Amino acid sequence: MKTFDPSIFKHSITFPVRFMDLDALNHVNNARYLNYLEEARIKYSKDILDTYHSIEDLKVLVARVEIDYLFPIEFGSDVKVYTRVAKVGTKSFNFECVICSVTNGKEIPAAHSIVTLVSFDPKTGKSVEIDRVLKARIVSFEGLK
């Protein structure tokens, strides 16, 4: 991530740092960032894709997670996660997220992530093409081609 431009993200979620998120150095443990990314994906999926109404709606798997840690998040801060689908393929799509530390209204990018999700058939356990309605919702909301 060269520079962070929040205007390219149409979706975000904000929540406080919890005491349980901290490590011995008094900042958010690196593993908690995965939880933040998951919360952001679920919120995006509910708000934009109209999915995650029940466990049976889960027809995607996380195939890859890349995280660049940029700045520590400390207790007393809020976390704001900007989320967008940056790329859609035939069977997979990429969520791009920027996790920000928010203190006194000032946002500082704390991590940049790309999460690749793969569409699959839960009965066969094999990858399948992304549902056309789901893909259309992503393309429409994000303005992708």
Could you characterize what this model shows?
- The protein is of the alpha+beta class and 145 residues long.
- The chain has two helices and six strands, in the order E-H-E-E-E-E-E-H.
- Strand 3 and strand 4 form a beta hairpin.
- The longest helix is centred in the first third of the chain and has 18 residues, at 32-49.
- The radius of gyration is 16 Å and the shape is globular.
Ends apart, CA distance between termini: 22 Å
Coarse morphology: globular
Q: Could you state the oligomeric state of the chains shown?
A: single chain
Order of helices and strands: EHEEEEEH
* Biggest sheet statistics: 6 strands, antiparallel
| Strand fraction | 35-45%
SSE blueprint:
Elements lengths: L10 E6 L15 H18 L10 E10 L8 E11 L3 E12 L2 E16 L4 E2 L4 H11 L3
Antiparallel strand pairs: 1-3, 2-5, 3-4, 4-5, 5-6
Short note summarizing the structure:
The chain has 145 residues and is an alpha+beta fold. Helices cover 20% and strands 39% of the residues. Strands 1, 2, 3, 4, 5 and 6 form a six-stranded antiparallel β-sheet that branches.
